[in-house]
Amino acid sequence: MQPRPPHLRDAADAGPRRDVPARTLSGASHRHRRQVVCLMGPTAAGKTAAAIRLAETFEQRGVDLVSVDSAMVFRGMDIGTAKPETDILRRFPHALIDVRDPTETFSVADFLEAADTVVAESLEAGRIPLLVGGTMLYFRAFKQGLAPMPPADPAVRADIVARACELGWPALHGELAARDPAAAAGMDPSNGRRIERALEVLTLTGRSITEFWHQPSPGAGDRLGCELVEVCLTPEPRTILHQRIAARLDAMLAAGFVDEVRALRRIPNLGAAAQSMRAVGYRQVWQHLDGEFERGELAGRIAAATRQLARRQLTWLRGWGDVAATVNTPDEAVRATAALLA
Questions:
Q1: What is the rounded average pLDDT for all residues in the chain?
Q2: DSSP state of 190
């Protein structure tokens, strides 16, 4: 993948999260409303294509694209995350793509710090920040803010991961349900990343992670002095989305997805428990290469996991509220967003 321009690449490497003060309406920014587009939707809905077309439509004014995808942050994970092609990224750089090695971690707080920095700079320059992706936890943090939580503790986290490797994440989800039913109720039993963090916070503080979620914190409007334009791209009927998932998966496998994971496995200190390798698709390919099931089962397992991910994303979106437009196709997303920005 091509390197990001410095102002996009380095934002994710900033220190602990700080509120970014709302900028004064100086310079070019006074000519336009301070709008931030959030283009949300399930996996394989066509969000990236719509975002690129919007960047083309508003190229004269300028659009700063920000990826809201917890897997695209990792370098070397290109095929299985459906990252935009190199020529697209060269013309339309995306912040928060390729900002971590796959052995590293990337938290919601990391996302918010980096996204706030890019968005604030974009607004000050009179450009349009366009956040695009399907990691709804990131979108929620950007919209509502994030209450301060204890930083990650490597020793506690290592103990949780070791138990997960021995017992499986569903077993640890059961443990979380016994100790913190409110947190466990909203989590998929196979979502190791969220279970790990909830158990970590509980261990470090004795408090439910949901208590931190519900603490008042400044939303995007207060932090950045902006108006959110939220557009939901949700293909209907559901069979259309399933067809898109299947077609994209076929293309990924044909493009060498298995070989991509095989190469990742050669990276020192990268294992199946890494945050990056828990991403849908990568987890299943890793399991296949470990000999857990035959090659003929791989596509079906990835497709099932991807459909499950899409269902979770759609559940988030149904309860989102304050959406400016809900559309079925990328073309409709472009038209609706362009009208809202006019």
A1: 90
A2: T
